[in-house]
């Protein structure tokens, strides 16, 4: 899903390495700009200017703002992804950490919240991205919960399929309330308390 | 919150009665148009034309599209509100019915989903409306859950304050998944199963 970025530090690089690094730099610039001023207000010119490249160079790599958007969302997934893919309770603990990070990058969280909602419209440029993303995330979570259930790590009666949808929904829905009123809750602790109730051992 | 609408059937009415009825007719037209084509694509002209009034007449009652939007959202709350304010398990059952109705009015559900997300931006015209709405809904739900807990209707360990936020979040988050993929779940049954796990008696 995320592009592989060769991290060459030598002076001479092949054309692919240069392209991949430039794409990465553009996405990181777009990431910062969108997180700060939002998708609608973020301009392609600002994103190019921030890293000292021409607007036309940016357009060579990303032909439209919605292409950039898709790339930024993939980058966000990459940042949001836990460093090591821990199984079981460790994976649930990592979800809490993802939410804690979302609390620290409120601009990006707002961007994500708005885009995922707008993308429910089948005509939106990110519709397929979000549809695929949710299908994948829910399936991964369900698989891990099934493994936990088989190993007796979940409370009796917890349904992995329903819980995979619910945990995902809870993370999205809590975001709306938190973004509307930052004082209303600690999202990470809200989620942790919920996940704890599903598990036999301490999260 | 919702305006009071004098339902006079006599030939002569005071100016206020006429105004209230016209506002109501405009809101119902806007409700239909927004639900069908979305907020962004719904035009003030279409809304006026649908009920045979001039565009300028509409502007006399609602000066902007965002004024209309706020009115439509209040009307939606009114429609969504259960006929009788049942207490306890009956109230939870009514939440399931609200979700079932949301499944039957997908266009409006999409509108609500997008608007509530967009309104997390403090500069959005509906920001204060949504902020107030969530504060109110969560507080009402918490109060009812506290009453249920005091009467032994909730399972041990269920925290009314956390659950009021969670149930609200779950309803919002499930909507995103369902709107992206209608085949992914029966939202009403997903919610019912969750609420059932909180309660001692059958929902």
TrEMBL record, chains A, B:
PROSITE patterns: HTH_TETR_2
Name of the protein: TetR/AcrR family transcriptional regulator
Species name: Kineosporia babensis
Gene3D superfamilies in UniProt: Tetracycline Repressor, domain 2
Domain of life: Bacteria
Keywords: DNA-binding, Repressor, Transcription, Transcription regulation
Coiled-coil features, chain-numbered ranges: none
Pfam family, one: TetR_N
UniProt DNA-binding region: 43-62
An example Gene Ontology molecular-function term: DNA-binding transcription factor activity
PANTHER family documented for this protein: HTH-TYPE TRANSCRIPTIONAL REGULATOR PKSA (PTHR30055:SF226), HTH-TYPE TRANSCRIPTIONAL REGULATOR RUTR (PTHR30055)
Span of domain HTH tetR-type: 20-80
